[in-house]
Amino acid sequence: LLAAMATHYVRAPTTLRLPEGEKQLQTGDKVKLLEQQGESANVQLLPLLPGAPQTQDVTGSVPTSALTPVPTNVNWLPLESNPDVFNGFLKRVGGLKDGWQFADVLGLDDELLAFVPSPCRALILLHPSGKRASVFKQRRRDLVAAAEGAAPISNGPPFYLTQHDESGNACGTIAVLHAIANARVPVEPGSVLSGFLSSAATMGPARAGWALLETDGMYEASDASAEKDGDTATPERDADTDFHFIAFVHANGRLWDMDGRKPHPVDCGATTEETFL
Description:
Layout: E1 8-10, E2 14-17, E3 22-25, E4 30-37, E5 40-46, E6 59-63, E7 67-69, H1 83-92, H2 110-113, E8 122-128, H3 134-147, H4 171-182, H5 192-200, H6 205-214, H7 218-228, E9 243-251, E10 254-258, E11 266-270
Antiparallel strand pairs: 1-4, 1-7, 2-3, 4-5, 5-6, 8-9, 9-10, 10-11
Helix pairs in contact: 1-7
């Protein structure tokens, strides 16, 4: 976790007044509250993701009304790479319709892929991270840096959210949400899951990442699945698991890399429902 964790995020676009000049803040940007004086707050701007421009010296004042406290349900338990865990989480927040569920991929040989139920519209991958994948993490930082100030992707998947540092080990839950939200999988109406997906679909990625932490039932369901549905002992909340979940999704005729630690989905090329795996 970062040493300077956010205490608040920006509720709506506002102006950060600096000692010299000003800076426009966007919905979902995160800050550390330094001092509050009536209707004004002195804050330090924090980077949304590793690789973003350093902001340790960017301090100024914003209207207190523009800030929302960061949810306190931080540092989610890590999920086991197990379809029973993913399906258990989904059942707790409402479930999927028409028989859709996660299943194991036993291997990438043609003979083993033949055991994967069809159609398959999304794939969740658990890969080494941290010290095990320094080159990958540097490429991800470079992607974050390149995205600064760039125009949003216009033809990407409809749903994407940021995994904030303050959410701890939520990458498995976020991969599940990226998979089902972009794979045109029907969910139970009126459920916690349906309500979250509907509301978050109208938000930008950073704001949607905070909404995940604020939605009643999501954190509880994810932790319950981590503790009860897996086959191995659940790591501690602050354990350095050195692994990271991402999702690959077939959407709009393209294969998309969906990693909440990246600034946006990454287009990996053309695909079809038949060639996706």
